[in-house]
Amino acid sequence: DTAVSQTPKYLVTQMGNDKSIKCEQNLGHDTMYWYKQDSKKFLKIMFSYNNKELIINETVPNRFSPKSPDKAHLNLHINSLELGDSAVYFCASSQKGEMTGDNEQFFGPGTRLTVL
Amino acid sequence: KQEVTQIPAALSVPEGENLVLNCSFTDSAIYNLQWFRQDPGKGLTSLLLIQSSQREQTSGRLNASLDKSSGRSTLYIAASQPGDSATYLCAVRPWRSQGNLIFGKGTKLSVKP
User: Is B40 in the A-facing interface, judged by CB distances under 8 Å?
Assistant: First the structure.
């Protein structure tokens, strides 16, 4: 009964390739997020989607493109992978993305991306 | 710009001790603050969520406090156990955000048997 799941767990690929990471939540939440955790373990928001609409796009290269086919899924597609993209990518979800204080965020297990 | 700082960066204690982890944030305009636990190679597990109008939250041996005006939160762990060993992350949800969290760099806790 995994609440937020991601696939794959590990991804090793060559520079220049295109890859996708999938995320699904079965919590019925309206809002989903992608975070990046770098080699120093620092977590930073990349994207946020509310009801399939993009509401946050931090300063992320346009090689990264999130896609939300429905409210329960938020996939991350990365074009022309670079060495610096190596990191752990976490998907998360919460009930509400608007300005309320009660939306606890739940995280997936992460996808460790290694670019060679 | 909101910044979150966690002190100490690492902490090692003998089993059974009570301990306090500290989190500070620069802008008191927040909706909530959330404490997470991250085990090596694993995802984040939500421990406690404190809304901006609350002063503290408790779950089992964990107690988190929030002093929004001074920009501080503490996570108190009672009677620590080796299984508590993990990295503890503090995150705030800023007032003018669209839901995203701003994280500290975490405190790596090691509880020795």
Answer: no
Beta-carbon separation of A48 and B99 below 8 A? yes
Q: Positive or negative CA dihedral for A56, A21, B45, B15?
A: negative
Pairs of CB atoms within 8 A across A/B:
75
A6/A29 Cα distance (integer angstroms):
16
Tens of pLDDT, residue by residue over A80-91, are 999 999 999 999
Check CB contact of A57 with chain B, cutoff 8 Å.
no
**Residues of chain B contacting A33 with CB distance shorter than 8 Å:** 99-100
B83-107 confidence digits (pLDDT tens): 999 999 999 998 877 678 999 999 9
